Predict the 3D structure of the following.
Amino acid sequence: MSDALIGSWRLVSFKREFSDTGELIDVMGADPSGVITLGTDGRMSAVIAASGRTAETTPAELFASFMAYSGRYTLHEDRFITDVDVAWHPAWVGSQQVRYFELRHGELHITTAEQLHPAFPGRLGRARLVWRRESG
């Protein structure tokens, strides 16, 4: 494990870059919240919620504006691969989620592999997330 990754990180931004146009959009609004934790035991968990969620938000909107998953991860140079064993969406359970990372200026930059997203049918793209280390 890379000691530089170990710990909890707070979400700064979550964008999607579309492969066909290069367009960047805020996936979970302009001010999403989230935490990713990478443990020394090889387990990670990530929780992300869109900005603007309220007690009046409908259940369908709540589901669409939230994501969470956890599993055992392995580190491979510039990426970590999570074997998902629990997730907000059942399709992720049993999958491998590949995340490319780079540490820059105290921030953890994560990019997903190119993939389809259920909210954008037929459009390939990558998620681009920026995290800052949680202060203790």
The beta strands are 7-18, 24-26, 33-38, 43-49, 66-76, 79-87, 96-104, 107-112, 115-117, 120-133.
